[in-house]
Amino acid sequence: MITNSGLVVLSVTAKRAAVEILSLPQSGSFAVKASHLGKSARTRARLIDAALFVFARQGLDAASINEITREAGIANGTFYLHFKDKEELAAVVAFSVVAEIVTEIEAAMAGIDDAVERISRGTRHFIHTAFGRIDWGWTFFRFFWTLPQLRREVAQYLRQDIELGVVQGVFTVTVDDFLVEMVGSLVNSALFAQMNGTVGSEAGSRAAELQLRLLGVDPDRAREVAWRSLD
Questions:
Q1: Is 32 helix (H, G, I), strand (E, B) or coil?
Q2: For 93-226, which CATH superfamily applies?
């Protein structure tokens, strides 16, 4: 079942894991990146960082602009100089997180053209990075279900590698929206399982192996590639 805030209600353990986010510190990563820019850009980055922290703990519905501006240390009126409303900020936050992670993934996969490797490494890098920056992980998880445009963006990115695999003859599937949605959902489900404590650091490899088998890769090769070191 999905609540309005996008949190899957699975168990008492899942609820407890979500509550534990309240004690997590802000990463401040976007403010750091904007530190050399003008005042307006720095303020916008502070709002994004603050929203990440608040959305990760509460989701979109429960979060308030007052809480976000308080976390950012700015006046309420300043918020509306940068964003029309909370929903616009949520979309910017979600796309900012995905853009940052995808940039890191592409840098890590530079020169890798094998679609099997790209799916495996992309999934594992994404989960590892999102889990390592837990406010990013929880925000992505919640908004993956509540922002259709975010799912479309992730789907477009995945579709490129899936179609590449079909051309290379390593994926024996018909590529359509349903297939891409299933491959993408495995990423989000595995991320949640690791954040929830259901599985450990093997979440990425387990998800990648399932993705590759879903795409028609031989089970032995799927397992070998999915559990290969990323180093």
A1: helix
A2: Tetracycline Repressor, domain 2 (1.10.357.10)
What's the pTM?
Answer: 0.81
**Residues 6 or more apart in contact with residue 96 via CB below 8 angstroms:** 30, 48
pLDDT (0 to 100) of residue 9: 34
Rounded to an integer, what distance in angstroms lies between the CA atom of residue 94 and that of residue 79?
18
- Given a contact cutoff of 8 angstroms between Cβ atoms, the answer to whether 147 and 90 are in contact is yes
Is the sign of the CA dihedral 198, 10, 129, 182 positive or negative?
positive
Domain boundaries of the chain, sorted by first residue: 12-86, 93-226
Structure tokens at 108: 């890590």
What is the per-residue pLDDT across 127-160, written as a single tens digit (0 to 9) for each?
A: 999 999 998 999 999 898 888 888 888 899 999 9
Which CATH superfamily is 12-86 part of?
A: Homeodomain-like (1.10.10.60)
Residues 88 and 93: their CA atoms lie apart, in Å, by: 9
Residue 28: the pLDDT is 60
- Per the CB < 8 A criterion, the answer to whether 175 and 184 are in contact is no
Unique residue bearing structure tokens 């579709």: 159
Asked if the domains at 12-86 and 93-226 fall in one CATH topology, the answer is no
Distance (Å, whole) CA 188 – CA 175: 20
Q: 8 has which bridge partners?
A: 2
